[in-house]
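User: Teach me something about this protein's shape.
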Amino acid sequence: MTIVLFNMIWEMSTLGLLNIATYLECEGYSAQHVYLTKHEPESKEEINAILSFLNKKQPSLIGFSLMTFNFERTKRITLAIRERFPGIPIVWGGIHPTFNPEESIKYADYVCIGEGEQAMVELLRAFEDNASVEKIPNIWCRQNDHVFKNDVRPLIQNLDDYPFPTINWKSTFCLDNGQIVPLTHNLYRENVMYTGTMYDIMVSRGCPYSCSYCCNSLFRSIYRNKGKYVRYRSVDSVMLELNYVKREFPYVNMINIQDDGFAAASEDYLKEFSIKYREQIGYPLRLRIIPTQITENKIKYLAEANTLVGVMGIQSSDRINKEIFNRKVSSKTLIDTAKLLKKYGIVGQYDLIVRNPYETEADMVDICNILSQIPKPYQLACFPLAFFPNTVLREKAIKDDTIEINESDGYITPYGNYPVKYPYLYKLQIICPYTPGFIIRFFLRNRHSKFFHSILAVYYSLIYKTIDKLRELIMHNTMFVAVTKKIIFLPQKLIRLLKK
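Assistant: First, the predicted structure itself:
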């Protein structure tokens, strides 16, 4: 059987659908993997290119992997395919169909919910054997006017049973200049961050948190009593993939561990990883930190593995994190973890959720105080709050009846569209990474003065914007990032040497 899988994510990466394509190939199926890397709607020429490609391949099944932001595009392409090839079944999978299967099954014949490797193989085998598809776990099936809604299967516990994702250059394609063309290394580098110098990898699945705005809260609900949720590949399996990367992608010089909870692994696991990683790979690392799961030994092992950047979510004030986001982590724990990162020479990137209609002025002040205490310099990544479909947060907002739900959240823009309620405090948050804490606190004390509003506006426009442009220049080249880190931590390194 030939299967065509369309990846609707606008940036190529090793995540999601590539795992499915690799697994299907290992099971003997011909998976044609097509990246439709676009933000804007497809033109008529591009739709025709997609239809021509399908006419040439004559697949037995067409699949789409999508997020909420890709829903409208996926719907339009699905309807065009349905009109041209009414007999070819279509399956949707990914985050959005898992969040919103009721909406997705209106357009697809099948919806794959949750982790899809085994479900997709069972679906294909049922097609081959002309067997029933009505009871396949993880699969919703629409037949005539009836939808069969199947529960998910137990979570696979040994992730090493799955192959690590690899690009088969002979069966991978992308949309380029109005045509579906074979993927090359040059096209790949045009469509990934940092021109392909940073490689994304997943070492584990699941997250220790269950934040109300996040997909993990839904996944935990779906997979309740279906096995251990947070699972790790063996270190040897990870090294196999990274050695493949060194051979296949000679331009890679940095590794980005995408897992939500990689650093939540045990000390023994991270120690083994650190030893084998620096012996076999050695590239600078970017990874995510769960502050409630951190010890000093873990940070030490990560530093020894050449961790360059540690990403950690602050998200909001203590009140919002506890009462609204279901994040059971205090600001003290966040600040203490940030100090550990600085101690071991790891650059901190801290995520913040902004434009939150639940926030009060007091919450904004609290966030500024937290940010002012984090060792500088650091990176701050701001994401507008979105009430994604069927999340715990969205259901709470509807129940509260005090928040106007924006139906375009996630559909029209990747995140929310709520206005900034306190522009002065918002600007203070933004400048925190490069501004001494005492200056932030000085501006906080004078936040009701129009004069200091003007002073902050000048500071923001002239000083912060200049520094941020320099940061953007550095962040677009992983080598610049590594050199900058050495400069930033040089004084600290010299002090340690003098103490010895």
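Now, about its shape. Residues 66 and 94 are 5 Å apart (CA to CA). The first helix runs from residue 17 to 26. If you'd like, I can walk through any region in more detail.
User: That's plenty for now, thanks!
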